[in-house]
Specification:
The structure is a single chain. This protein is α/β, with parallel strands linked by helices. It has 14 helices and 13 strands. Helix 3 packs across helix 4 and helix 10 (266-284) packs parallel to helix 14 (378-391). It starts with 26 loop residues before the first helix and ends in a 5-residue tail after the last helix. Bound molecules: pyridoxal-5'-phosphate.
Length: 396
C-alpha cells in the first residue's frame, strides 16, 4: 500500500496524504507469513499457540486466547462473564461501537455511564450510581491508550461478585499504577486491526488469569465444542458435545504468524508513539484553543490515538470545519467517537438518548484525532503541528 486517494487539485506538488493511523509490515513479517503458508496446519496449529504464549508473556497474564477479531474476543468475554438476556453491563459511550455491541450480542442490556472529563475514560462514581442487581459486568475502555481508573472498577466488581472486562484495544503496553494492562481485569481484550499497535489483518486476543474463564473463551471460539481438535486426537475421541452455543471465531495460523512477527516490534512501536506524542504535547502547548490529552500520574498511556479538544478559537472554527481544513491540507485527522448511546440502534432498543452522558456528549462535539502511528516520522508530526498553528491563528 502506497498513498491512498487523489491529491488536492489546487496544489502543484501535493504532499502524500497522512492517514490518522496505518500499519507497518516489514520483510520479516512477509517471511513469517510465507513460512506459515508452507506449514502443515493453516489454522489451530502451532503458530497460533506460540502467538498466544508470546502475547500472554508480553502482558504478563496467565493465559491468552486469540480470536478472529477484537470484537469476537469481546463477544466471547461478555459470554464468559455470564451476560445473557435479563442481565446488564455498564460501559462508556465514548468508544468504538464494538464494546457495547458485544454486550448486545448476548441479549444483555448495555448501559452507559458518563466519562471523566480529564481522561475521557469511564467515571467510577457514575458507574457506581448506575449499578443495579442485574449488572453482571463492567466494561471500562482504555480510551486512546490511557488506562481507565481500574482499581475502583475491580473493587466494585469484587463487592458485587461480577466481572470486569477491560477493552484494552487501544492500550497494549499501557501501565496502570505500574502494572501492565492485561493483569488487572478478569478479562482484558486487545485488537489487531491494522490501525492498532500490532496487526494480524483482522484479529484479537482475550487474556485472563482464570483457567475457568480461559476455558469458556476457548469453547466459545470453537462452536461451543468442549475440546479442540488436538485434545480430541490426543484422547482418541472421535465425537464431541456442545453444551453451550459458540461460534467460529478462530484466528488462522497465517494471521498468527503475522501477529507473532509484529509482536517482536511492539516495544519499539510503543516508544515511537510515545516520542511522537511528547512532540505533539510540546509543539501544541502554545495553542490556547486546544485542550491537550493528559497522562495521569498513575498511568502510562500506550498512545493509540492523539486526541485534542477544540475550544473557541480566534479563527472561529468549529470542529467539523477544522477537520475539513486539515483534510484539505492532506492531514487525515479523524474523530473518535460519535457516542454509542446516541446511535439509532441503541436509542430504539435500549431507550438511550441525548442528556444521558453530558460529559461524553460535550467532548464528542469537540474531539479531533491527529495522525499518530509507529511508521510516522517526526517530519509528519511537525507538518501537523505547523498546519494547526496556521489554522488556529496562534501567536507563537
Ligand atoms: C479496535 C477496537 C475494537 C475491536 O475491533 P476489531 O476491529 O474487531 O478488532 C474494540 N474496541 C475498541 C475500543 C477498538 O478500538
Amino acid at each position: 500500500m502506497k498513498s491512498r486517494g487523489g491529491a488536492s487539485e489546487k496544489s502543484p506538488a501535493p504532499l502524500k496524504p497522512l492517514p490518522y493511523a496505518r500499519q507497518k509490515v516489514t520483510r520479516d513479517d512477509l517471511k513469517a507469513v510465507a513460512k506459515a503458508l508452507k506449514g502443515e496446519r493453516l489454522t489451530t496449529g502451532p503458530i497460533l499457540k506460540e502467538f498466544e504464549r508470546a502475547f500472554a508473556a508480553f502482558v504478563g497474564s496467565g493465559c491468552a486466547v486469540a480470536f478472529s477479531s477484537g470484537t469476537a474476543a469481546l463477544h466471547a468475554a461478555a459470554h464468559a462473564a455470564g451476560l445473557k438476556p435479563g442481565t446488564e453491563a455498564i460501559t462508556t459511550p465514548l468508544t468504538f461501537a464494538a464494546t457495547a455491541n458485544a454486550v448486545a450480542y448476548t441479549g444483555a442490556k448495555p448501559r452507559f455511564a458518563d466519562i471523566d472529563p480529564e481522561t475521557l475514560t469511564l467515571d467510577p462514581e457514575k458507574v457506581r450510581q448506575a449499578l443495579t442487581d442485574s449488572t453482571k459486568a463492567l466494561l471500562p475502555v482504555d480510551y486512546a491508550g490511557h488506562p481507565a481508573d481500574l482499581d475502583p472498577f475491580v473493587q466494585m466488581a469484587r463487592e458485587k461478585g461480577i466481572f470486569v472486562i477491560e477493552d484494552a484495544c487501544h492500550a497494549p503496553g499501557a501501565l496502570y499504577k505500574n502494572r501492565a494492562v492485561g493483569q488487572l481485569a478478569d478479562i482484558t481484550v486487545f485488537s489487531f486491526h491494522p490501525v492498532k499497535h500490532i496487526t494480524t489483518g483482522e484479529g484479537g486476543m482475550a487474556v485472563t488469569n482464570s483457567e475457568e474463564l480461559a476455558h469458556k473463551l476457548k469453547t466459545f471460539r470453537n462452536h461451543g465444542i468442549d475440546l479442540d481438535a488436538d485434545e480430541r486426537d490426543g484422547k482418541g475421541l472421535f465425537t464431541y458435545d456442545i453444551a453451550e452455543l459458540g461460534y467460529n471465531y478462530r484466528l488462522s495460523d497465517i494471521n498468527a504468524a503475522l501477529g507473532l512477527s509484529q509482536l517482536s516490534r511492539i516495544e519499539e512501536n510503543l516508544k515511537t508513539r510515545r516520542r511522537l506524542a511528547a512532540y505533539y504535547l510540546d509543539a501544541l502547548a502554545p495553542l490556547s484553543s486546544l485542550i491537550l490529552p493528559v497522562e495521569k500520574e498513575w498511568a502510562k498511556s500506550a498512545w493509540h490515538l492523539f486526541t485534542v479538544r477544540l475550544k473557541e478559537n480566534p479563527a472561529g472554527l468549529e470542529r467539523d470545519q477544522l477537520l475539513a481544513k486539515l483534510r484539505a491540507e492532506g492531514i487525515g485527522a479523524a474523530f473518535h467517537y460519535p457516542p454509542v448511546h446516541l446511535m439509532t440502534y441503541y436509542r430504539r432498543n435500549f431507550g438511550t438518548g441525548e442528556g444521558d452522558c453530558p460529559v461524553a456528549e460535550g467532548a464528542a462535539k469537540t474531539l479531533i484525532t491527529l495522525p499518530l502511528f509507529h511508521s510516522m516520522g517526526k517530519g509528519d508530526a511537525k507538518r501537523v503541528a505547523g498546519t494547526l498553528r496556521a489554522l488556529l491563528g496562534a501567536r507563537r
